[in-house]
Recover the amino acids of this structure.
């Protein structure tokens, strides 16, 4: 009740001000009149009575002020006035205000943009219901703690697992490559078998038709043959046909009814691999399931892990092969892999936009200070008639906040556009495909906080500086340049730090560009031009007939080689250079007669002998294995120069025996190995190094062995053609069709050369080059504006002094020199500090961006660029000083 | 003016509430009534009087309404609200407790200690 009364009284005071003012006036007038009347009754004359009554009461205006402070609204009333006055004074200096606003807008825009990307694309990328509670089923193999793996469950384990206390619900899925049959050539379709609770678990409704629903797998009858398409597959295969629902898709010769299409922002299972279609899961379709786990609200990861550990220990006893020998459950939020991948990149980008923001703030401070100097008189008078320092500080802060708010408005609008950039520049693996940049509350809140912070940051120093005017000096002096020594020092400090930060950003951009150029011009050691890699899924065959499988692969290779336009075809079981094979794991090997304490690692690559010719990797010494050795698989190996030189520096590697334990047949159902795959092999040849450990690192030691020594249900063909390889794809697929009508190939979207651009380091370095250069240019622009305005301000202050100097015969060049002297010295010190800063940070940076590095030449170039631009920015306004008319300036004062 | 007493901090509000509780009054009337009841021994500064009055109204203990004064002028009459009545009671209780305590202390003799 009481609170309500207070609110009403504030409401009235704020929004019915005139009425309240009138009421108070009337009431107080009544009081004075009544009092006058009383005094007259006591015997005073009417005039005397009125005078006494008014004196006793005081001014009505003062009373009104007291009224406002009585109900606690006085500060609001004053701030209202400050805002109106502040806006008027900003409007009076339109150009200065506009430059200040734009300075902050650039900084705020860039910072908000990067924040949006981090927030929308890394922290909250998924459109799923309760996405922050969904976790990947990761376990950490104690033998390889760096790379978590996922665990799969059998149907009965899945059933058991879903009863765990920590989980709210669990979604099971398994990916499987299927063949779309019924058309001319068999096509590869990646199917995700999903449990029928997918619609309720993920909470994303279908775009057309419906999703998979529980009634698709009723107990007691076979699961229904229905399929839901992803948006991408619907677009590429059916051209976005809106009447697709109800039609049939033939997969592995079985007919499936298309019941729905998912929306564009839905790419479930992307973390594992992209799916094209979703099919209801049934034990007959896939024996195992990966669980996607939605935790109950409030359950911590640690609690979930410890509960799941006991489940999994139990499961491991049933199916030991599904789990590493010694492991620890470590479920991870579903955005974790992306944060791991892109987090460092964005940490660095965020740091650089914060630098840009700081430069913008410094710029705004410089402009406020410069403008404030010309208002010193105003402040002096205000404080002379009783304004407290607090009032003046408040006035100035309100002005800088107004600038910041305007800047933030423009900046946030621009950030929406800027934030799309990283998503376009970086390929899919860096962000979930489902990520979308949207304007949302946290981002708006972030920018509001940013606006307040920048407003305070850029305003506080000028406000404190200007609110302490030296009264007597200012009011006595006639010229405008009194009492500013200390703020000149401040200005120089601001400019110096601006230049230093700009140098840092330019240095970063220079290093990023140098790094990118180095990567794009890396000597690969192999020739990716006109080569493509075609993935060949093999029929699931548990017969362990090694010869048959090797013969089939060779048949496939030969039929591809017979296609016109194809120069050579090689088999390489897994891994595409320059990335490391076996998902980055290098296999340990041992040298006969030279046991080593330390683990010796080599990139073990399973290839056919044509591999070297196809990629144009030269043989340096010895020989390659022949076809019969290739069929046998055992006893031979070829190593690269890096390995040969590391272990046999005298150059006598050939003839030595090595063994690779990782090639041992572990008895997995789908793989087959030659009898002595993990036994001794003789080194018969040495080939030149080619990049196999990422673009940014030199070639790692590598061992090449015949692919027939270890095979599973997948292989790859490396195909060199005379012309653009993708053009021959159709002919190659037809050739494969002729030897096996069921043989599908994986989708090939790029040749080997174009694929380089998707290498992580290439992507990261390209993004850095583009964004850093962009930010550095903005920073440079801001600093130059700051410089130019400082020089102009200095000239305006010294006009009369310069006039006198000219009247006494100073040369124009001398005038220019004395005007820009201090500023140039500041710039030079800024550059020096920036250089030191860059050198100091460089080491730390190498950790984040292994490929970025600055050569001395980069730093020289940056120094020259900055000095030249700064000199021009100083000289442009200084020229004006040289054309001052002495007579006019002298007359002015 | 030796007989006049300075007002203790914060007591003005309770006096205003009391004066209004005796019957609705306009501002000047409240001032007069307090002075009259006090036997003219209390001098209330007119400036702070209205501040106190407005603060009380803002807190919702009084309600103002425009009406006609005794000499047919528009004047704002104040009335005690329910909340104001409660406040008056609790403040009165507090006040008498306070004076009791202070009096006890002031009347203390050496024998009592």
């Amino acid at each position: 009740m009481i609170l309500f009364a207070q609110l009403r009284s504030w409401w009235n005071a704020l929004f019915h001000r005139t009425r309240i003012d009138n009421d108070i006036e009337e009431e107080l007038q009544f009081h004075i009149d009544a009092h006058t009347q009383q005094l007259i009754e006591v015997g005073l004359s009417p005039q005397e009575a009125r005078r006494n009554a008014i004196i006793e009461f005081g001014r009505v205006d003062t009373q009104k002020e007291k009224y406002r402070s009585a109900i606690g609204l006085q500060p609001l009333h004053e701030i209202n006035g400050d805002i109106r006055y502040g806006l008027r004074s900003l409007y009076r200096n339109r150009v200065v205000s506009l430059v200040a606003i734009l300075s902050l807008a650039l900084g705020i825009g860039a910072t908000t943009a990067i924040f949006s990307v981090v927030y929308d694309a890394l922290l909250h990328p998924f459109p799923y219901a309760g996405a922050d509670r969904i976790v990947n089923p990761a376990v950490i193999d104690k033998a390889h703690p760096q790379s978590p793996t996922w665990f799969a469950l059998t149907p009965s384990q899945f059933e058991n697992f879903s009863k765990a206390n920590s989980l709210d619900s669990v979604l099971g899925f398994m990916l499987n490559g299927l063949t779309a049959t019924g058309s001319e050539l068999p096509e590869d379709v990646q199917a995700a078998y999903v449990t029928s609770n997918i619609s309720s678990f993920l909470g994303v409704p279908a775009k057309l038709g419906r999703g998979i629903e529980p009634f698709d797998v009723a107990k007691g009858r076979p699961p229904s043959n229905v399929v839901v398409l992803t948006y991408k597959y619907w677009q590429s295969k059916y051209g976005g046909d809106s009447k697709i629902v109800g039609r049939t898709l033939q997969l592995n010769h079985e007919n499936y009814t298309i019941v729905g299409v998912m929306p564009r922002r839905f790419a479930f299972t992307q973390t594992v691999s992209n799916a094209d279609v979703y099919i209801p899961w049934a034990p007959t379709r896939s024996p195992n399931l990966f669980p996607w786990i939605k935790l109950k609200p409030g359950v911590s990861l640690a609690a979930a892990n410890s509960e799941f550990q006991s489940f999994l220990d139990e499961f491991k006893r049933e199916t030991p092969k599904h789990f590493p020998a010694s492991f620890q459950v470590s479920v991870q939020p579903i955005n974790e892999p992306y944060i791991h991948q892109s987090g460092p990149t964005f940490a660095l980008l965020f740091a650089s936009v914060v630098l840009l923001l700081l430069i913008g703030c410094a710029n705004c401070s410089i402009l406020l200070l410069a403008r404030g100097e010309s208002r010193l008189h105003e402040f002096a008078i205000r404080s002379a008639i009783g304004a407290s320092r607090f009032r003046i500080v408040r006035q100035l802060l309100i002005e800088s906040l107004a600038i910041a708010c305007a800047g933030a408005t423009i900046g946030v609008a621009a950030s929406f556009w800027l934030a799309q950039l990283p998503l376009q520049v970086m390929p899919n693996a860096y962000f979930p495909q489902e990520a979308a940049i949207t304007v949302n509350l946290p981002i708006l809140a972030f920018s509001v906080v940013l606006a307040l912070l920048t407003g305070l940051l850029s305003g506080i120093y000028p406000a404190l500086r200007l609110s302490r005017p030296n009264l007597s000096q200012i009011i006595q002096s006639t010229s405008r340049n009194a009492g500013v020594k200390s703020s000149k020092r401040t200005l120089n400090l601001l400019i110096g730090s601006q230049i230093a930060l700009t140098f840092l950003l330019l240095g970063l951009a220079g290093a990023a560009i140098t790094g990118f150029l180095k990567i794009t011009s890396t000597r690969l050691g192999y020739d990716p031009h006109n080569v493509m890699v075609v993935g060949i899924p093999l029929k699931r065959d548990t017969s362990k007939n090694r010869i048959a499988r090797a013969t089939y692969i060779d048949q496939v290779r030969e039929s591809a080689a017979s296609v016109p336009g194809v120069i050579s075809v090689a088999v390489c079981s897994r891994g595409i250079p320059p990335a490391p094979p076996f998902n980055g794991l290098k296999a340990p090997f041992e040298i006969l007669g030279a046991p080593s304490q330390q683990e010796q690692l080599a990139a073990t690559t399973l290839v056919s002998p044509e591999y070297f010719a196809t990629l144009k990797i030269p043989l340096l010494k010895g020989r390659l294995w022949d076809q019969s050795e290739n069929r046998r698989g055992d006893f031979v190996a070829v190593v690269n120069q890096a390995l040969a030189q590391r272990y046999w520096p005298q150059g006598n590697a050939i003839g030595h025996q090595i063994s690779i334990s990782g090639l041992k047949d572990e008895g997995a159902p789908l793989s087959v190995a030659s009898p002595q795959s993990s036994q001794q092999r003789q080194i018969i040849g040495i080939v030149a190094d080619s990049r196999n450990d990422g673009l940014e690192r030199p070639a790692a030691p590598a061992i090449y062995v015949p692919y027939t020594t270890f095979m599973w249900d997948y292989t790859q063909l490396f195909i060199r053609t005379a012309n653009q390889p993708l053009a021959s794809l159709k002919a190659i697929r037809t050739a494969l069709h002729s030897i096996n009508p069921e043989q599908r190939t994986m989708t090939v979207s790029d040749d080997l050369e174009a694929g380089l651009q998707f290498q992580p380091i290439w992507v990261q370095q390209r993004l850095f080059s583009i964004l850093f250069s962009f930010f550095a240019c903005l920073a440079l622009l801001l600093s130059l504006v700051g410089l130019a305005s400082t020089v102009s301000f200095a000239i305006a202050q010294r006009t009369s002094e310069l006039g006198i100097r000219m009247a006494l015969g100073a040369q124009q060049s001398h005038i220019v020199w004395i005007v820009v002297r201090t500023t140039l010295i500041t710039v030079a010190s800024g550059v020096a500090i920036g250089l030191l800063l860059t050198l100091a940070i460089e080491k730390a940076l190498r950790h984040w961006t292994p490929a970025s590095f600055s050569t001395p030449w980069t730093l020289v170039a940056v120094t020259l660029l900055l000095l030249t631009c700064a000199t021009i920015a100083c000289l442009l306004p200084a020229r004006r000083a040289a054309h001052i008319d002495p007579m006019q300036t002298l007359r002015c004062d | 003016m030796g007989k006049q007493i300075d007002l203790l901090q914060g007591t003005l509000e309770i006096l205003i509430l009391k004066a209004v509780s005796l019957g609705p009054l306009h501002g000047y009337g409240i001032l007069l009534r307090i002075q009259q009841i006090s036997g003219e021994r209390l001098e209330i500064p007119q400036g702070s009087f209205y501040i106190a009055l407005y603060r009380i109204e803002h807190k919702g203990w009084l309600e103002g309404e425009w009406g006609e004064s005794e000499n047919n002028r528009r004047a704002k009459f104040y009335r005690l609200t329910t909340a104001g009545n409660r406040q008056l009671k609790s403040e009165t209780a507090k006040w008498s407790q306070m004076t009791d305590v202070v009096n006890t202390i002031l009347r203390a003799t050496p024998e009592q200690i």
Chain B touches chain A through 25 residues (CB under 8 Å). The mean pLDDT of chain B is 82.
